[in-house]
Design brief:
With 100 residues, the protein is of the alpha+beta class. The protein has five helices and three strands; from the N terminus they run αβαβααβα. InterPro entries: ArAA_hydroxylase_sf, Aro-AA_hydroxylase_C_sf.
């Protein structure tokens, strides 16, 4: 889970802010040396802690080993978008970097 350090960073770089979903954010690619295209956000830490208590991580990790990595640039049908950003920073990025 990533937290932007400035409002503009999240608004202009992010393709979207999404509600936490372990299946989604454990499978979503990220860039260690750049802004992120997707941020997963929570309203309260208690919400995250509750989600962690409800999740069978052994089962989740076992299942995720066989599932493909997801791109941070697309919004999937299972995603709950809290706020969609402009994504201006990322326009043409994947072609530039040779990514799918």
């Amino acid at each position: 889970m990533q937290v932007g350090n400035e409002r503009g960073q999240v608004r202009h770089t992010a393709r979207g802010r999404r509600a936490p979903n372990f299946n989604r954010f454990l499978r979503t690619g990220y860039y260690i040396d750049d802004f992120q295209a997707t941020y997963f956000v929570i309203d309260r830490f208690e919400d995250l802690f509750a989600l962690m208590r409800e999740t069978d991580f052994l089962e989740l990790y076992t299942r995720l080993r066989t599932e493909p990595e997801l791109t941070p640039f697309e919004i999937g049908p299972e995603d709950v978008v809290v706020r969609e950003g402009t994504g201006d920073y990322w326009r043409g990025f994947s072609e530039e970097k040779g990514l799918k």
